[in-house]
Amino acid sequence: MSRAEATKTRILRAATDEFAAHGIAGARVDRIAKAASANKNLIYVYFCSKDRLFDAVYDAHVTHGLHTVAFTADDLPGYAGRLFDYGQEHPEVIRLAVWHRLERGDGPDPAAAAPTRDAELAALAAVQKDEGIGAAFSPTALLTLVQGLALAWNPSNATGMPAAAMAAEGTDERRRSIVEAVRRLL
Q1: Which end of the chain, N or C, is less packed with Cβ atoms under 10 Å?
Q2: Comparing C-alpha atoms, which of 102, 111, 96, 174 is closest to residue 143?
């Protein structure tokens, strides 16, 4: 890896932590540069702006990261369980997605526009047609519901739920509940 690539990697790592903690508006380029042991100007050379740096972080972690979770249209409960596990292992991904929704509002979501999502929806439509599962919902609605259930109990996404209430359930129990909820949804 070249020196420039190593610097970009450090910047992206530091920016991931900064954006996950503070969002786009609250993130500070000075803190990112310091955490990355990089010159602040290099951030602008490599990424042009703080917004484009966020886009690079979002693309790396949310768009591509969530698509590393194996999607199985014929086993949506299993997919929901794996997605829950991924969210537990990578809470920064959920925080980045929440910040994107909060600060970019109704703008396009690159994760939803990814070609992988189109393939998932097509596979889901085929399974719905062949097996009749989740027939009360469009493929888009069904996938949105499954993903929403899978990520709802992530500490970064659990709106209004006290940490003590989440801890009382336990991770295994939350996962089991999510898988069962998706099974019943179908």
Answers
A1: N
A2: 111
